[in-house]
Q: What sequence folds into this?
């Protein structure tokens, strides 16, 4: 049913989540945001996640569900799981107030402002909390994929990691504004990424006692839906904000191409 190592899957998930710390470090150690690079990188991440979700993960969900339930019921349940995953992450997104949504674009140049604003501290803490909530299902998604296949999990971990870099900037900047402390800003940013491996652990301990082909198929269908929603709702709009429209699209196509080739190499 699954071939990857639990330890390796957890390690990939932890690295993906803690990439928020990279965003925080970039905010402190570089003087200018490379918006063109970020636009391409975020588009690339979206391309990887969309392609792997629709071509590989959803197909694996359908195969897993068709074995015990038959092709007709299995196919329907895979599709329903996919849209349930979308509904779940959309609901989580809806519960985060829009004016405090962590996916708003931030740049390193904002670090030049003087700290000391209590409202910004609240915004930064709420951003960290919101990112933590978003990262919980992302952690489960990365973990489930890595548990099924190390190569698949690795690709998704890289894509989620790229996605988490701007989120680290989003947490760090308002908290630095409010406190003047780089250590506090980095700490909150780092903590917001921890929910990703926590999501993986919670999912594993909750599901392992009754993990079978049907549960695996439903989970994988949901993972595909979660990642497609993240790509269209967060990654691509942020890529567009950071750079030109075409840079985001070129990154998207490149991500799809790299994912397609890597999947073919592991046939």
A:
């Amino acid at each position: 049913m699954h071939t990857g190592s639990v330890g390796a899957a957890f390690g990939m998930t932890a690295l993906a989540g803690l990439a928020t710390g990279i965003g925080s470090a970039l905010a402190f150690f570089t003087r200018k945001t490379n918006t063109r690079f970020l636009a391409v990188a975020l588009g690339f991440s979206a391309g990887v996640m969309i392609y792997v979700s629709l071509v590989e993960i959803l197909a694996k969900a359908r195969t897993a569900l068709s074995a015990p339930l038959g092709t007709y019921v299995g196919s329907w349940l895979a599709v329903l799981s996919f849209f349930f995953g979308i509904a779940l992450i959309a609901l989580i997104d809806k519960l985060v107030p829009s004016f405090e949504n962590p996916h708003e674009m931030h740049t390193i140049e904002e670090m030049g402002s003087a700290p000391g604003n209590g409202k910004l501290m609240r915004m930064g803490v709420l951003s960290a909390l919101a990112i933590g909530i978003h990262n919980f299902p992302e952690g489960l998604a990365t973990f489930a994929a890595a548990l099924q296949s190390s190569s698949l999990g690795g690709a998704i971990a890289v894509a989620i990691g790229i996605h988490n870099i701007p989120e680290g900037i989003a947490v760090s900047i308002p908290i630095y504004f409010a406190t003047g402390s780089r250590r506090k800003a980095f700490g909150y940013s780092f903590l917001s990424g921890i929910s990703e491996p926590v999501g993986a652990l919670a999912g594993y301990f909750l599901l392992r006692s009754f993990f079978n082909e049907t549960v695996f198929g439903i989970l994988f269908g949901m993972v595909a839906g979660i990642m497609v929603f993240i790509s269209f709702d967060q990654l691509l709009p942020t890529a567009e904000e950071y750079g030109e429209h075409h840079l985001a699209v070129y990154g998207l196509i490149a991500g799809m191409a790299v994912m397609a080739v890597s999947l073919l190499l592991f046939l």
